[in-house]
Amino acid sequence: MTRRFLSVGFLFVSSATLGGGFQNGPQSARLVGLGGAATAYARDASGIFYNPGILGHLDSLTHLSFGGLGTARTTSFLGTDSRRQTLQELAILPGGYFYATHPLSDRVKVGLSVNTPFGYDTQWPGSWEGRSLVRSASMHTVFVQPTAAFRVNENFSLGAGFIYARGSLQRERSLGQFDDLGAAVSYKASGSGIGYSLGMYGRTGEDLSFGISFRGPVALRMNNGSAETVVNGGIGNGRSTDAFTTRVKLPSTLAVGLADQMTKKLLVTFDFALTGWSSYDSLNFKFKDTSIPSVRQGRRYEDAMSFRVGGEYTASNNLLLRAGVSYDETPIRDEFISPELPDGNRLGGSLGVSLGLRRVMLDLGYGLEVAGKRTARVNRTQYQAPSIAGNYRTLVHTLAAGVSYSFGSKK
Protein backbone atom coordinates (compact mmCIF):
# COMPACT_ATOMS: atom_id res chain seq x y z
CA MET A 1 0.00 0.00 0.00
CA THR A 2 2.91 2.37 0.75
CA ARG A 3 4.16 2.08 -2.81
CA ARG A 4 0.65 2.64 -4.11
CA PHE A 5 0.53 5.98 -2.36
CA LEU A 6 3.97 6.75 -3.78
CA SER A 7 2.35 6.30 -7.18
CA VAL A 8 -0.38 8.72 -6.20
CA GLY A 9 2.27 11.22 -5.09
CA PHE A 10 4.09 10.84 -8.37
CA LEU A 11 0.97 11.66 -10.34
CA PHE A 12 0.47 14.70 -8.14
CA VAL A 13 3.97 15.95 -8.96
CA SER A 14 4.47 14.99 -12.57
CA SER A 15 1.34 16.53 -14.03
CA ALA A 16 2.08 20.05 -12.92
CA THR A 17 2.33 21.42 -16.44
CA LEU A 18 0.18 19.04 -18.41
CA GLY A 19 -1.95 21.13 -20.73
CA GLY A 20 0.29 24.21 -20.87
CA GLY A 21 2.20 25.55 -23.84
CA PHE A 22 2.66 22.34 -25.79
CA GLN A 23 1.12 23.15 -29.15
CA ASN A 24 3.44 21.49 -31.61
CA GLY A 25 4.31 24.10 -34.19
CA PRO A 26 2.46 25.03 -37.40
CA GLN A 27 1.28 21.85 -39.09
CA SER A 28 2.86 22.37 -42.50
CA ALA A 29 6.27 23.33 -43.86
CA ARG A 30 4.68 26.26 -45.67
CA LEU A 31 2.94 27.47 -42.53
CA VAL A 32 6.14 27.14 -40.48
CA GLY A 33 7.75 29.58 -42.91
CA LEU A 34 4.79 31.97 -42.50
CA GLY A 35 5.11 31.96 -38.73
CA GLY A 36 1.82 30.05 -38.43
CA ALA A 37 -0.44 32.78 -39.88
CA ALA A 38 -2.82 30.29 -41.52
CA THR A 39 -6.45 31.36 -40.93
CA ALA A 40 -6.74 33.33 -44.20
CA TYR A 41 -3.98 31.59 -46.19
CA ALA A 42 -5.77 29.83 -49.06
CA ARG A 43 -2.83 28.71 -51.19
CA ASP A 44 -2.29 25.27 -49.69
CA ALA A 45 -4.40 22.32 -48.56
CA SER A 46 -2.99 22.61 -45.03
CA GLY A 47 -5.36 25.50 -44.44
CA ILE A 48 -8.28 23.10 -43.94
CA PHE A 49 -7.04 22.18 -40.44
CA TYR A 50 -6.81 25.80 -39.29
CA ASN A 51 -9.90 27.04 -41.16
CA PRO A 52 -12.25 24.55 -42.86
CA GLY A 53 -13.86 27.43 -44.77
CA ILE A 54 -10.70 27.76 -46.88
CA LEU A 55 -11.53 24.42 -48.51
CA GLY A 56 -14.52 25.98 -50.28
CA HIS A 57 -12.32 28.49 -52.07
CA LEU A 58 -9.56 26.18 -53.24
CA ASP A 59 -9.53 25.67 -56.99
CA SER A 60 -11.10 22.64 -58.69
CA LEU A 61 -7.89 20.60 -58.68
CA THR A 62 -7.21 17.71 -56.32
CA HIS A 63 -4.52 18.75 -53.85
CA LEU A 64 -2.16 16.61 -51.78
CA SER A 65 0.30 17.85 -49.20
CA PHE A 66 2.39 15.75 -46.84
CA GLY A 67 5.59 15.98 -44.86
CA GLY A 68 7.36 15.67 -41.55
CA LEU A 69 8.39 18.06 -38.82
CA GLY A 70 10.54 17.95 -35.73
CA THR A 71 10.40 20.15 -32.64
CA ALA A 72 13.23 20.44 -30.13
CA ARG A 73 13.00 22.35 -26.84
CA THR A 74 16.35 23.20 -25.28
CA THR A 75 16.00 24.31 -21.67
CA SER A 76 18.57 25.26 -19.05
CA PHE A 77 17.92 25.43 -15.31
CA LEU A 78 19.95 27.42 -12.77
CA GLY A 79 19.21 26.41 -9.18
CA THR A 80 18.62 29.24 -6.73
CA ASP A 81 20.30 27.43 -3.83
CA SER A 82 22.82 25.19 -5.59
CA ARG A 83 23.83 27.71 -8.31
CA ARG A 84 24.25 24.64 -10.47
CA GLN A 85 23.26 24.83 -14.13
CA THR A 86 21.60 21.81 -15.75
CA LEU A 87 20.85 21.39 -19.44
CA GLN A 88 18.03 19.22 -20.71
CA GLU A 89 19.06 16.25 -22.81
CA LEU A 90 18.30 16.83 -26.48
CA ALA A 91 14.98 15.21 -27.41
CA ILE A 92 13.38 15.84 -30.80
CA LEU A 93 9.60 15.49 -30.86
CA PRO A 94 8.68 13.94 -34.22
CA GLY A 95 5.56 14.98 -36.08
CA GLY A 96 4.02 14.85 -39.50
CA TYR A 97 1.07 15.90 -41.60
CA PHE A 98 -1.06 14.76 -44.54
CA TYR A 99 -3.71 16.82 -46.33
CA ALA A 100 -5.93 15.91 -49.27
CA THR A 101 -8.73 17.87 -50.94
CA HIS A 102 -11.08 16.97 -53.79
CA PRO A 103 -13.92 18.88 -55.51
CA LEU A 104 -17.31 17.16 -55.67
CA SER A 105 -18.79 20.08 -57.62
CA ASP A 106 -18.11 23.73 -58.27
CA ARG A 107 -19.44 24.58 -54.82
CA VAL A 108 -18.84 21.50 -52.68
CA LYS A 109 -15.41 20.20 -51.75
CA VAL A 110 -14.20 17.59 -49.28
CA GLY A 111 -10.87 17.03 -47.60
CA LEU A 112 -8.93 15.08 -45.01
CA SER A 113 -6.21 16.22 -42.62
CA VAL A 114 -3.98 14.07 -40.43
CA ASN A 115 -1.50 15.86 -38.20
CA THR A 116 0.17 16.10 -34.77
CA PRO A 117 -0.88 19.44 -33.24
CA PHE A 118 0.00 18.81 -29.56
CA GLY A 119 3.00 17.21 -27.90
CA TYR A 120 6.31 17.56 -26.10
CA ASP A 121 9.28 15.47 -24.98
CA THR A 122 11.28 16.45 -21.89
CA GLN A 123 14.41 14.59 -20.81
CA TRP A 124 16.49 15.69 -17.79
CA PRO A 125 19.73 14.00 -16.70
CA GLY A 126 19.08 11.13 -14.30
CA SER A 127 21.12 12.71 -11.50
CA TRP A 128 19.93 16.33 -11.76
CA GLU A 129 18.78 18.10 -8.60
CA GLY A 130 15.11 18.09 -9.58
CA ARG A 131 14.94 14.37 -10.38
CA SER A 132 12.40 13.77 -7.59
CA LEU A 133 10.04 16.07 -9.49
CA VAL A 134 10.59 14.75 -13.00
CA ARG A 135 13.25 12.85 -14.95
CA SER A 136 11.33 12.49 -18.19
CA ALA A 137 7.91 13.35 -19.58
CA SER A 138 6.33 13.17 -23.00
CA MET A 139 3.04 13.52 -24.80
CA HIS A 140 2.09 12.60 -28.37
CA THR A 141 -1.15 13.25 -30.25
CA VAL A 142 -2.59 12.51 -33.69
CA PHE A 143 -5.66 14.32 -35.09
CA VAL A 144 -7.69 12.94 -38.00
CA GLN A 145 -10.14 15.45 -39.45
CA PRO A 146 -12.48 14.75 -42.40
CA THR A 147 -13.75 18.10 -43.67
CA ALA A 148 -16.42 19.45 -46.04
CA ALA A 149 -16.97 22.98 -47.32
CA PHE A 150 -19.62 24.84 -49.31
CA ARG A 151 -18.90 27.91 -51.43
CA VAL A 152 -21.88 30.20 -50.93
CA ASN A 153 -20.82 32.61 -53.67
CA GLU A 154 -17.70 33.93 -55.33
CA ASN A 155 -16.59 35.70 -52.17
CA PHE A 156 -17.74 33.54 -49.26
CA SER A 157 -17.51 29.90 -48.14
CA LEU A 158 -18.27 27.84 -45.02
CA GLY A 159 -16.66 24.64 -43.78
CA ALA A 160 -16.83 22.11 -40.96
CA GLY A 161 -14.74 19.17 -39.84
CA PHE A 162 -15.06 16.26 -37.43
CA ILE A 163 -11.99 15.50 -35.28
CA TYR A 164 -10.94 12.10 -33.97
CA ALA A 165 -7.87 12.33 -31.74
CA ARG A 166 -5.51 9.81 -30.17
CA GLY A 167 -3.01 10.65 -27.48
CA SER A 168 -0.49 9.05 -25.14
CA LEU A 169 1.41 10.15 -22.03
CA GLN A 170 4.54 8.92 -20.26
CA ARG A 171 6.14 10.17 -17.03
CA GLU A 172 9.00 9.20 -14.73
CA ARG A 173 10.58 10.63 -11.57
CA SER A 174 13.03 9.45 -8.92
CA LEU A 175 11.95 8.57 -5.41
CA GLY A 176 14.07 11.00 -3.42
CA GLN A 177 13.50 9.28 -0.06
CA PHE A 178 15.59 6.29 -1.20
CA ASP A 179 19.38 6.20 -1.56
CA ASP A 180 19.07 4.05 -4.68
CA LEU A 181 19.06 6.30 -7.76
CA GLY A 182 17.22 3.52 -9.57
CA ALA A 183 14.22 3.90 -7.26
CA ALA A 184 11.61 5.54 -9.46
CA VAL A 185 7.95 5.76 -10.24
CA SER A 186 6.55 6.02 -13.74
CA TYR A 187 3.24 5.90 -15.46
CA LYS A 188 1.82 5.74 -18.93
CA ALA A 189 -1.64 6.04 -20.42
CA SER A 190 -3.32 6.48 -23.78
CA GLY A 191 -6.77 7.27 -25.03
CA SER A 192 -8.93 9.03 -27.57
CA GLY A 193 -11.43 11.83 -27.93
CA ILE A 194 -13.57 13.64 -30.47
CA GLY A 195 -14.09 17.26 -31.42
CA TYR A 196 -15.08 19.57 -34.25
CA SER A 197 -13.82 22.48 -36.31
CA LEU A 198 -15.82 25.30 -37.94
CA GLY A 199 -14.66 28.05 -40.23
CA MET A 200 -15.57 30.65 -42.78
CA TYR A 201 -13.47 32.32 -45.44
CA GLY A 202 -14.27 35.42 -47.46
CA ARG A 203 -12.88 37.97 -49.83
CA THR A 204 -13.65 41.68 -49.87
CA GLY A 205 -11.97 42.19 -53.21
CA GLU A 206 -9.22 40.87 -55.42
CA ASP A 207 -6.50 41.64 -52.91
CA LEU A 208 -7.95 41.26 -49.40
CA SER A 209 -9.33 38.11 -47.78
CA PHE A 210 -10.28 37.12 -44.24
CA GLY A 211 -10.98 34.01 -42.20
CA ILE A 212 -12.62 33.13 -38.89
CA SER A 213 -12.37 29.68 -37.33
CA PHE A 214 -13.17 27.86 -34.14
CA ARG A 215 -11.74 24.48 -33.18
CA GLY A 216 -13.56 22.96 -30.25
CA PRO A 217 -11.91 21.36 -27.21
CA VAL A 218 -10.99 17.68 -27.25
CA ALA A 219 -11.06 15.57 -24.10
CA LEU A 220 -8.79 12.52 -24.32
CA ARG A 221 -10.25 9.80 -22.12
CA MET A 222 -7.48 7.54 -20.87
CA ASN A 223 -8.88 4.44 -19.18
CA ASN A 224 -5.81 2.19 -19.35
CA GLY A 225 -3.37 4.11 -17.16
CA SER A 226 -0.64 2.15 -15.37
CA ALA A 227 1.43 3.62 -12.49
CA GLU A 228 4.51 1.55 -11.65
CA THR A 229 6.76 1.98 -8.62
CA VAL A 230 10.22 0.37 -8.49
CA VAL A 231 12.40 0.29 -5.36
CA ASN A 232 15.78 -1.49 -4.96
CA GLY A 233 16.01 -2.01 -8.70
CA GLY A 234 12.85 -4.10 -8.83
CA ILE A 235 14.30 -7.03 -6.88
CA GLY A 236 11.84 -9.25 -5.03
CA ASN A 237 8.82 -7.30 -3.85
CA GLY A 238 10.27 -3.95 -4.88
CA ARG A 239 7.82 -3.42 -7.76
CA SER A 240 4.13 -2.57 -7.70
CA THR A 241 1.66 -1.51 -10.37
CA ASP A 242 -1.63 0.35 -10.00
CA ALA A 243 -4.24 1.06 -12.67
CA PHE A 244 -5.87 4.44 -13.05
CA THR A 245 -8.07 6.46 -15.40
CA THR A 246 -7.82 10.13 -16.28
CA ARG A 247 -8.88 12.68 -18.84
CA VAL A 248 -6.66 15.21 -20.61
CA LYS A 249 -8.41 18.34 -21.85
CA LEU A 250 -6.90 19.80 -25.03
CA PRO A 251 -7.97 23.42 -25.51
CA SER A 252 -10.23 25.15 -28.00
CA THR A 253 -8.92 27.82 -30.37
CA LEU A 254 -10.71 30.87 -31.80
CA ALA A 255 -8.77 32.53 -34.62
CA VAL A 256 -9.22 35.53 -36.92
CA GLY A 257 -6.98 36.11 -39.90
CA LEU A 258 -6.37 38.51 -42.78
CA ALA A 259 -4.41 38.09 -46.00
CA ASP A 260 -3.48 41.06 -48.19
CA GLN A 261 -2.03 40.78 -51.68
CA MET A 262 -0.03 43.96 -51.23
CA THR A 263 1.74 43.75 -54.59
CA LYS A 264 1.62 41.36 -57.50
CA LYS A 265 4.36 39.29 -55.87
CA LEU A 266 3.94 39.89 -52.13
CA LEU A 267 1.22 38.35 -49.93
CA VAL A 268 1.10 39.34 -46.24
CA THR A 269 -0.91 37.33 -43.69
CA PHE A 270 -1.93 38.17 -40.12
CA ASP A 271 -3.47 35.98 -37.40
CA PHE A 272 -4.85 36.59 -33.93
CA ALA A 273 -5.80 33.52 -31.88
CA LEU A 274 -7.23 32.95 -28.43
CA THR A 275 -6.56 29.48 -27.03
CA GLY A 276 -8.92 28.33 -24.30
CA TRP A 277 -6.44 26.86 -21.85
CA SER A 278 -8.68 27.90 -18.93
CA SER A 279 -10.74 24.76 -19.57
CA TYR A 280 -7.78 22.94 -18.02
CA ASP A 281 -8.76 23.94 -14.52
CA SER A 282 -7.93 20.62 -12.88
CA LEU A 283 -6.77 17.09 -13.61
CA ASN A 284 -8.36 14.18 -11.78
CA PHE A 285 -6.97 10.69 -11.19
CA LYS A 286 -9.27 7.84 -10.30
CA PHE A 287 -7.63 4.58 -9.30
CA LYS A 288 -9.38 1.32 -10.04
CA ASP A 289 -8.36 0.10 -6.59
CA THR A 290 -10.98 1.91 -4.52
CA SER A 291 -8.72 1.81 -1.44
CA ILE A 292 -6.59 4.48 -3.13
CA PRO A 293 -8.37 7.83 -2.92
CA SER A 294 -9.04 9.83 -6.06
CA VAL A 295 -6.93 12.92 -6.54
CA ARG A 296 -8.11 16.31 -7.78
CA GLN A 297 -5.33 18.64 -8.86
CA GLY A 298 -6.03 22.32 -9.40
CA ARG A 299 -4.24 23.81 -12.43
CA ARG A 300 -5.98 27.17 -12.91
CA TYR A 301 -4.54 27.71 -16.38
CA GLU A 302 -5.27 30.95 -18.19
CA ASP A 303 -6.51 31.57 -21.72
CA ALA A 304 -3.62 32.70 -23.91
CA MET A 305 -3.36 34.94 -26.98
CA SER A 306 -1.03 34.69 -29.95
CA PHE A 307 -0.18 37.08 -32.79
CA ARG A 308 1.38 35.98 -36.07
CA VAL A 309 2.48 37.83 -39.20
CA GLY A 310 3.83 36.17 -42.33
CA GLY A 311 4.92 37.17 -45.79
CA GLU A 312 5.17 35.15 -49.01
CA TYR A 313 7.12 36.54 -51.96
CA THR A 314 6.78 35.02 -55.43
CA ALA A 315 10.28 35.27 -56.81
CA SER A 316 9.27 33.27 -59.90
CA ASN A 317 6.68 30.71 -60.96
CA ASN A 318 8.82 28.00 -59.38
CA LEU A 319 10.24 29.79 -56.33
CA LEU A 320 8.36 31.11 -53.29
CA LEU A 321 10.10 32.72 -50.32
CA ARG A 322 8.53 33.13 -46.87
CA ALA A 323 9.24 34.79 -43.54
CA GLY A 324 7.23 35.25 -40.38
CA VAL A 325 7.21 36.53 -36.81
CA SER A 326 5.07 35.42 -33.89
CA TYR A 327 4.31 36.13 -30.25
CA ASP A 328 2.68 33.53 -28.00
CA GLU A 329 1.53 34.01 -24.44
CA THR A 330 2.06 31.16 -21.99
CA PRO A 331 -1.00 29.87 -20.12
CA ILE A 332 1.07 28.73 -17.11
CA ARG A 333 0.84 30.87 -14.00
CA ASP A 334 4.00 31.58 -12.01
CA GLU A 335 2.92 29.35 -9.13
CA PHE A 336 2.60 26.32 -11.46
CA ILE A 337 6.02 26.46 -13.17
CA SER A 338 7.50 22.96 -13.33
CA PRO A 339 10.54 21.28 -14.91
CA GLU A 340 8.22 18.95 -16.80
CA LEU A 341 7.55 21.67 -19.38
CA PRO A 342 9.03 25.06 -18.49
CA ASP A 343 7.17 27.52 -20.66
CA GLY A 344 7.19 31.29 -21.06
CA ASN A 345 5.93 34.00 -23.36
CA ARG A 346 7.61 33.23 -26.68
CA LEU A 347 8.84 35.53 -29.45
CA GLY A 348 9.55 33.72 -32.70
CA GLY A 349 10.88 34.16 -36.19
CA SER A 350 10.75 31.84 -39.21
CA LEU A 351 11.93 31.36 -42.78
CA GLY A 352 10.63 29.14 -45.58
CA VAL A 353 10.96 28.32 -49.24
CA SER A 354 9.06 26.34 -51.89
CA LEU A 355 10.68 25.08 -55.06
CA GLY A 356 8.52 24.02 -58.00
CA LEU A 357 9.31 20.95 -60.09
CA ARG A 358 6.59 20.69 -62.70
CA ARG A 359 3.37 20.04 -60.69
CA VAL A 360 5.25 19.24 -57.49
CA MET A 361 6.35 21.80 -54.90
CA LEU A 362 9.08 21.00 -52.40
CA ASP A 363 8.46 22.91 -49.15
CA LEU A 364 10.89 23.71 -46.33
CA GLY A 365 10.38 25.80 -43.19
CA TYR A 366 12.34 26.61 -40.03
CA GLY A 367 11.21 28.48 -36.92
CA LEU A 368 12.94 29.59 -33.72
CA GLU A 369 11.11 30.76 -30.59
CA VAL A 370 12.77 32.35 -27.57
CA ALA A 371 10.90 32.03 -24.31
CA GLY A 372 11.19 34.63 -21.59
CA LYS A 373 13.01 33.67 -18.40
CA ARG A 374 10.77 31.96 -15.86
CA THR A 375 11.59 32.01 -12.16
CA ALA A 376 10.19 29.18 -10.06
CA ARG A 377 9.85 29.54 -6.30
CA VAL A 378 9.04 26.92 -3.70
CA ASN A 379 5.71 27.52 -1.99
CA ARG A 380 5.32 25.13 0.92
CA THR A 381 1.56 25.72 1.02
CA GLN A 382 1.10 24.89 -2.68
CA TYR A 383 1.29 21.14 -2.29
CA GLN A 384 -0.63 20.56 -5.52
CA ALA A 385 2.19 22.06 -7.59
CA PRO A 386 5.56 21.18 -6.02
CA SER A 387 8.54 22.83 -7.66
CA ILE A 388 12.24 23.55 -7.28
CA ALA A 389 13.55 27.10 -6.94
CA GLY A 390 15.50 28.38 -9.92
CA ASN A 391 15.44 30.03 -13.34
CA TYR A 392 14.47 28.40 -16.63
CA ARG A 393 15.48 29.59 -20.10
CA THR A 394 14.04 27.86 -23.18
CA LEU A 395 14.51 27.87 -26.95
CA VAL A 396 12.13 26.03 -29.29
CA HIS A 397 13.36 24.93 -32.72
CA THR A 398 10.95 23.67 -35.42
CA LEU A 399 12.05 22.24 -38.77
CA ALA A 400 9.59 20.96 -41.39
CA ALA A 401 9.90 19.57 -44.91
CA GLY A 402 7.12 18.49 -47.22
CA VAL A 403 5.79 17.96 -50.71
CA SER A 404 2.72 19.54 -52.32
CA TYR A 405 1.11 18.10 -55.46
CA SER A 406 -1.94 19.06 -57.50
CA PHE A 407 -3.61 17.26 -60.37
CA GLY A 408 -6.79 17.36 -62.41
CA SER A 409 -8.17 20.09 -64.62
CA LYS A 410 -9.43 23.50 -63.66
CA LYS A 411 -13.02 24.22 -64.56
Short recap of the structure:
By secondary structure, this protein is mostly beta strands.
> How would you name the CATH homologous superfamily?
Outer membrane protein transport protein (OMPP1/FadL/TodX)
Number of helices: 3
Q: What coarse outline follows from CA principal-axis ratios?
A: globular
Classify the secondary structure makeup into a structural class. mainly beta
With strands numbered from the N-terminus, the spatial order across the biggest sheet is 1-3-4-6-7-8-9-12-13-16-17-18-19-21
Strand content range: over 45%
CATH topology group: Porin
Our measurement of the CA-to-CA distance between the termini, rounded to an integer number of angstroms, reads: 70 Å
SSE ordering: HHHEEEEEEEEEEEEEEEEEEEEE
The largest β sheet comes out as: 14 strands, antiparallel, barrel
Low-confidence stretches: 1-20
CATH architecture: Beta Barrel
Question: Mean pLDDT score, rounded?
Answer: 86
CATH class: Mainly Beta
User: Rg, please?
Assistant: 23 Å
| Structure summary, number of beta strands | 21
The portion of residues assigned to helices is: under 10%
The structural domain count equals 1
